[in-house]
Amino acid sequence: MNIHEYQAKDILKSYGVVVPAQKLAETPEVAVNAARQLFEETKTAVFVLKAQIHAGGRGKGGGVKIAKNVEEVYQLADQIIGMQLVTPQTGPEGKKVNKIIVSEDVYYPGASEPSEIYLSVLLDRAKGCDVIMASTEGGVDIEEVAEQTPEKIIKEWVDPKVGLQAYQARKVAFALGLEGLALKNMIKFITNIYKAYRGIDASQVEINPVLKASDDAIIAVDAKINLDDNALYRHKDFIALRDESEEDPLEVEASKSGLNYVKLDGNVGCMVNGAGLAMATMDMIKLSGGEPANFLDVGGGANAQTVEAGFRIILQDPNVKAILINIFGGIVRCDRVASGVVEAYKNIGQIDIPIIVRLQGTNAEEGAKIIEESGLRVVSAILLKDAADCVKEALV
Ligand code: GDP
Ligand code: MN
């Protein structure tokens, strides 16, 4: 699960990470009030306005603006709130900005130049370890740095069984070329970021940029956190952080029905049980000349309701020209799935596209019989190859 920058910063703050003071606003008026309060609390005269959407690259798209006084806060908030923000990560249609944060500006001028650092923690699946990545070349062009000068990315692997060792945090901070108070602050910063990463069961924490301010404070200017969905049951209070308006509506509906659904661009909808079989089915659709319209795993416990929910979701995609249902009956019985298909078909009413059903495994014959006797426009195939041929026919 993805969360917003302001939510990520609240969490990190509770782990002792230094973040700029921030307030949330959904209108320019509230933004102005927020700025006045920030002035009271921090004496900042310069404010930063940042669009809160689930995508990075906001700076490049005009979603991060600096206001030098309260009047500018109003004007800039008015520009950003409600805009369709297009960034390198949103796709060409962009994302609507519903809220912004107003923050104190922490790039205050001082004796030495502030510098932007990159820091992230994630899982290195190949090594079975967490990895801390850091670079002195933080800021908006880190993707280019990683691609063109990968030697500028420092990596430190952490064995999750023993956790982050003090020498490792020191090693990364030294490698960033820091000294004195900045070095000390960075060691604390890295230690706290790693603590947060483990404590909240994140799959990724990325801070870009981390600012070394002119007074040697080390501050998280941006924050991106991905939470591991499989661990959300351990963090019931995080469920409230979910912002469904940022997610694909069909994917939200699917997850409510316990379906694992990813929308794709093709013309053959597929409903399968098990991720592996779903992948194989998508390959088969391609071999038969079609393109999968989605990935949909109805899970091991598929029943009439999940089948119907899956049908409804697939049918909402106007590109779908045929539906292939490929179920292997193990714990789930094929006759139940077949009844589910027949029932869903009747409940939904007019379905104008061909439906090809392949049921194999437990009670496959009973399932095929139910479909044949239903008199509906459902084609039953036994072999995978037959199913592929049916898809091919359906598309001509
Ligand atoms: P992103 O573009 O979505 O990654 O958003 P960021 O939060 O990383 O902001 C983009 C850029 O805006 C940063 O790299 C900074 O250069 C600049 N920026 C962000 N916050 C501040 C701030 O408080 N003060 C100043 N002066 N610049 C900031
Ligand atoms: Mn950033």
From TrEMBL:
Pathway: Carbohydrate metabolism; tricarboxylic acid cycle; succinate from succinyl-CoA (ligase route): step 1/1. Residues 2-210 form the ATP-grasp fold succinyl-CoA synthetase-type domain. Keywords: ATP-binding, Ligase, Magnesium, Metal-binding, Nucleotide-binding, Tricarboxylic acid cycle. Binds 1 Mg(2+) ion per subunit. The keyword Ubl conjugation does not apply. Substrate binds at N273, G330, I331, V332. Its EC number is 6.2.1.5. SUPFAM superfamilies: Glutathione synthetase ATP-binding domain-like, Succinyl-CoA synthetase domains. Its cofactor is Mg(2+). It catalyses: succinate + ATP + CoA = succinyl-CoA + ADP + phosphate; GTP + succinate + CoA = succinyl-CoA + GDP + phosphate. It comes from the Bacteria. Residues 271-385 form the ATP-citrate synthase/succinyl-CoA ligase C-terminal domain. ATP binds at K50, G57, R58, G59, V106, E116. Mg(2+) binds at N208, D222. Heterotetramer of two alpha and two beta subunits. Belongs to the succinate/malate CoA ligase beta subunit family. This is Succinate--CoA ligase [ADP-forming] subunit beta. The lineage of its organism: Bacteria, Pseudomonadati, Bacteroidota, Cytophagia, Cytophagales.
